[in-house]
Amino acid sequence: MNHNAKLLILFVLCCQGCSQSIVVNTIIPDPLVSKIENYNIAVVYGPDIKSFHFEDTDIEPSDITLSIDFQDSQMLTFSKILNGFFHNLTTVDSGNKEIINGIDLYLEIKLEAIEYLSPIQSGSEKHAIWFNYKIKIFDHQRTPTTSWDITGYGEDTIGSLKSTQSLEKAVNSGLRDVGVNLSMKIEDDFQKLIE
Amino acid sequence: MMNNPFLFALFCFMAFFISSCTTSRLEEQVNLPFNLSEGEAVVIIANSYHSGNQTEYDFIQCINKSLSKKQNSFNVLPTEDFQNMLYPWLEPRTAPQTPEDLPQLLSRVLVRETMETHNVKYLINISGETKTNSSSGALSCAAGPGGGGCFGLAWWDDTSSYSASVWDIAQESSVGSVSATVSGTSVIPALIIPIPIIARTKSSACNGLVTQLLKFFSTS
């Protein structure tokens, strides 16, 4: 093997340590919840929910770039939970402001923030990720009534797993936790909303 | 050093001596009478990271696999499958952390029905983690177009300490617990090629805990 080939292999090995990139394919199970009957819900997903690419170049060590392609996993998380609670769920485009006949409530879901903590930043050999969403709720006339803040937190210790596997597990746990918090919010507050 | 038989033998002896320093401690406590019949099932769950628990995912997997493989008198429902069945009520935020939390989980009709459908008799709650207590030595590696290699000696002490608490679904209480603590020293001697000699404390703790659990259930 000549010197150029050896240098090329060395360069490739070095570059592999400079970035972390994952594609999220979280599968949220059907929630084990009781259906809320006789309510027709329309959901408006913000553009960052339908598809989102998270990039962080400001993590330690400074030469690492983190890239997380969420694809539509956030939308699927919300959709799975809402379909678990409601029979009639309609999805409305974010630009569509019309009032739809028969809809009792409109939910507008927006991504507020995603924050990531690397194993070095946390000082505990774990990836940690935090999600924050705002759900604005409108009545049948699309008049704002209230809003819910839904968060989710996931972490995973690197342990014997590959670092990207651990990151994937942290993201999956975070999105599942979003589903948990949304389910708890609907169980606790939906009745108050419709009274 | 490889050409000097005395130095090589000394090096191997040191590596063997350091790596063989492993100690185990197993404990068992039975609180209430219990029984597990054929066809009934247990589920392994872990305490939440929200409560500060750091039990590793691979340790839970190890307990699941080992407990399924080493007996065929009862079923072990895989943790992830069961979490998915009960989603979102067995997630880190919602799963019971103590036996006192069981009534809240079981007050959900759909949860109780799912457990009955799958004949789940006990939940086995795992907590604990593997920690590196101290490390020492020095190991350096270098690589260049002409080749590469490492030189030095590094070692560290690990302690794997885990406990399993057995919760009875019907009685909504803990019927007993077992624990395993394994300490060991790992060493990496390096003479051009590093040779890791790892004390498998986590794996030993997993085996110890499963052996204790099987003994626990076989006395029923």
Q: What is the total tally of β strands of chain A?
A: 8
Separation of the first and last Cα atoms of chain B: 58 Å
Q: Give the quaternary arrangement of the chains.
A: heterodimer
CATH topology of chain A: Rossmann fold
Structural class of chain B: alpha/beta
Based on DSSP secondary structure assignment, what is the total number of beta strands of chain B? 6
* Total separate domains of chain A: 1
**Structural class assignment of chain A:** alpha/beta
Q: Could you list the spans of chain A in which at least 5 consecutive residues all have pLDDT below 50?
A: 5-16
Strand line-up of the largest beta sheet of chain A? 5-2-6-7-8
How would you sum up the global shape of chain B? elongated
N-end to C-end Cα span of chain A: 77 Å
Largest sheet of chain A: 5 strands, mixed
Low-confidence stretches of chain B: none
Rg of Cα set of chain B: 22 Å
Radius of gyration of chain A: 21 Å
What order do the SSEs of chain B take from the amino end to the carboxyl end, as H and E? HEEHEHHHEEEH
Arithmetic mean pLDDT of chain A: 86
Largest sheet of chain B: 6 strands, mixed
By CATH, the superfamily of chain A comes out as ABC-type transport auxiliary lipoprotein component
Structural account:
The complex is a heterodimer of chains A (195) and B (220). Chain A has 195 residues and is of the alpha/beta class. Chain A has a single domain, classed as Rossmann fold. Chain A is built from five helices and eight strands. A five-stranded mixed beta sheet of chain A has the order 5-2-6-7-8. In chain A, strands 1-4-3 form a three-stranded mixed beta sheet. Chain A is elongated. By secondary structure, chain B is α/β, with parallel strands linked by helices. Chain B has a domain at 23-128 and 162-179 and 200-218. Chain B contains six helices and six strands. Chain B has helices spanning 5-19, 57-69, 79-85, 102-106, 109-117, 201-218; strands spanning 22-30, 41-46, 75-77, 120-144, 147-168, 173-194. A six-stranded mixed beta sheet of chain B has the order 1-6-5-4-2-3. In chain B, helix 2 links the parallel strand 2 and strand 3. In chain B, helix 2 (57-69) packs across helix 6. The interface between A and B is medium-sized, with 28 and 22 residues.
